[in-house]
TrEMBL record:
<dbReference type="Pfam" id="PF00067">
    <property type="entry name" value="p450"/>
</dbReference>
<keyword id="KW-0408">Iron</keyword>
<dbReference type="InterPro" id="IPR036396">
    <property type="entry name" value="Cyt_P450_sf"/>
</dbReference>
<keyword id="KW-0479">Metal-binding</keyword>
<dbReference type="GO" id="GO:0008395">
    <property type="term" value="F:steroid hydroxylase activity"/>
</dbReference>
<comment type="similarity">
    <text>Belongs to the cytochrome P450 family.</text>
</comment>
<dbReference type="InterPro" id="IPR002397">
    <property type="entry name" value="Cyt_P450_B"/>
</dbReference>
<dbReference type="GO" id="GO:0020037">
    <property type="term" value="F:heme binding"/>
</dbReference>
<dbReference type="GO" id="GO:0006707">
    <property type="term" value="P:cholesterol catabolic process"/>
</dbReference>
<dbReference type="GO" id="GO:0036199">
    <property type="term" value="F:cholest-4-en-3-one 26-monooxygenase activity"/>
</dbReference>
<keyword id="KW-0349">Heme</keyword>
<keyword id="KW-0560">Oxidoreductase</keyword>
<keyword id="KW-0503">Monooxygenase</keyword>
<protein>
    <submittedName>
        <fullName>Cytochrome P450</fullName>
    </submittedName>
</protein>
<dbReference type="InterPro" id="IPR001128">
    <property type="entry name" value="Cyt_P450"/>
</dbReference>
<dbReference type="GO" id="GO:0005506">
    <property type="term" value="F:iron ion binding"/>
</dbReference>
């Protein structure tokens, strides 16, 4: 039923991708994307503030064009919808908000650490963590899958990559939630769209919790400077970037914070959405149980289906044309990855959840541009191992209550997922 509702068009005038309250029922966002792809694929979306708005890019091909052309569509004016001034940009720019040489140099510092070879070396650790997490959760019979399985899993993995002591994991988890949940009252100390957030305008996501993350990261950096460690922090403080310019304290703060937040909610929500999809499509769960060799294609379908990052934004550096519209220099151009993931031009029967889907050219990690998710191999490996371990343990699994969503047009998140399971 959800998938039929998702493709029901609405009057164009009712579409509002800037209204966060439309992003809480799990259906309206998909209806808005469907409507735009069919009626106005590059759509001017006004925002509340006077003279503001953005181009909503909703088709796969147009999104790919924007993501692959950083000279015309820059990340340096920031990648979410927030308006930023030059001073904020100087203070807050991380890898995500740099282009060109400096971006390549900073990304290069950790490229190998996130490459397939190094990540495959974590397989045993991931399998062990998965087994412990699942055994504790499934023994409960009825439980919240988000709380017991998906929520803390990614940050426990990151803690290992950062080589921090396990007793610090809970702090990292809390910080990650508070920083990135900045539009949802369940997580944020200060809501991004509240008047109070003005006080924190110079901080990432306008979140006071980011100061705690900075302090923690700096202490790790101090301990590891000059050492022989191979963890991510040691690399950042001991390697010289390819452009020869060492990381400033501020570069380090922003890089460290990005690592703490980038893979946290994204991976968590993918795992939750994947479980929800299997509960809503029991025949697909049965297919996986009968044929575990389908897990790799299932992982790609989980990623497409979940679309945990709704959008990333760019800013036009010059006047250009996109999907028949005249885009002017300085205007915000927003790639709605989630919409591209349901594009009928690219995906056969895009609203069907199919664990055996082939040629799954989804946009969940971006589309071949310089900012393609650095953690994509890690995320794929985590999700694969989790479902390799979960599927054979389940004889039966059912949804046991409502599934509230995160109030955000940036992160497509599930807050709670009550399930009842019977063990195999
Ligand atoms: C960038 C999604 C997991 C680290 C990105 C981008 C997206 C994304 C859409 C921007 C792509 C673009 O602009 O073309 C996701 C999703 C994940 C995930 C959906 C999980 C399912 C992770 C993990 C890590 C990570 C586990 C690391 C711990 C990063 C970093 C960047 C990035 C550092 C910035 C790369 C750059 O600017 O060059 N991610 N991500 N991500 N991601 Fe992920």
């Amino acid at each position: 039923a959800t998938t039929d509702a998702a493709r029901e068009p609405m009057p164009l005038a009712e579409v509002n991708l800037a209204d966060l309250d439309r992003f809480t029922d799990g259906v309206t966002p998909w209806r808005m994307f469907h409507t735009l792809r069919h009626q106005d694929p590059v759509h001017w979306q006004p925002e509340d503030a006077p003279n503001s708005g953005f181009w909503a890019v909703t088709r796969h091909a147009d999104i790919a064009r924007v993501d692959r052309d950083p000279e015309t569509f820059t990340s340096t004016r920031f990648v979410n919808l927030e308006e930023v001034d030059d001073d904020q940009i100087r203070r807050r720019a991380s890898l995500l908000e740099l282009d060109g040489l400096r971006h390549r140099a900073l990304r290069g510092l950790l490229q190998r650490q996130f490459g397939a070879r190094v990540i495959s070396g974590y397989a045993d650790f991931l399998r062990g963590l998965t087994a412990t997490t699942l055994d504790a959760a499934l023994a409960r019979g009825t439980f919240d899958f988000v709380k017991e399985v998906s929520a803390d899993f990614p940050i426990n993995v990151l803690a290992r990559l950062l080589d921090v002591p396990p007793e610090d994991n809970q702090r990292l988890i809390d910080w990650g939630n508070r920083v990135i949940g900045h539009t949802d009252p369940d997580y944020a100390d200060v809501l991004l769209d509240s008047a109070e957030s003005e006080r924190y305008r110079d901080l990432p996501f306008r979140s006071p919790a980011s100061l705690e993350v900075f302090a923690y990261g700096r202490e790790l950096a101090r301990q590891r400077r000059g050492g022989a460690g191979t963890d991510l922090v040691s690399r950042l403080v001991n390697e010289v970037p390819r452009d020869g310019v060492p990381l400033s304290d501020r570069d380090f703060d922003n890089y460290f914070l990005l690592l703490v937040v980038a893979g946290n909610e994204t991976t968590r929500h993918t795992i939750s959405h994947a479980m929800l999809a299997l509960l809503q499509h029991p025949e697909q769960l049965a297919r996986l149980r009968d044929d575990p060799s389908l897990i790799p294609t299932a992982v790609e379908e989980f990623l497409r289906w979940a679309s945990p990052v709704y959008h990333f934004r760019r800013t036009a550096t010059r006047d250009t044309e996109l999907g028949g519209k005249r885009v002017r220099a300085g205007e915000k151009v927003v790639m709605w990855f989630a919409s591209g993931n349901r594009d009928e031009e690219v995906f056969g029967d895009p609203y069907a959840f199919d664990v055996a889907r082939r040629d799954n050219d989804h946009l969940t990690f971006g589309k071949g541009g310089p900012h393609l998710c650095l953690g994509n191999q890690l995320a794929r490996t985590e999700i694969r191992i989790l479902f390799e371990e979960l599927v054979p343990r389940l004889a039966d699994a059912r949804l046991a209550g409502d599934v509230p969503r995160v109030r955000s047009n940036f992160v497509n998140g599930v807050k709670r997922l009550p399930v009842t399971v019977t063990l195999a």
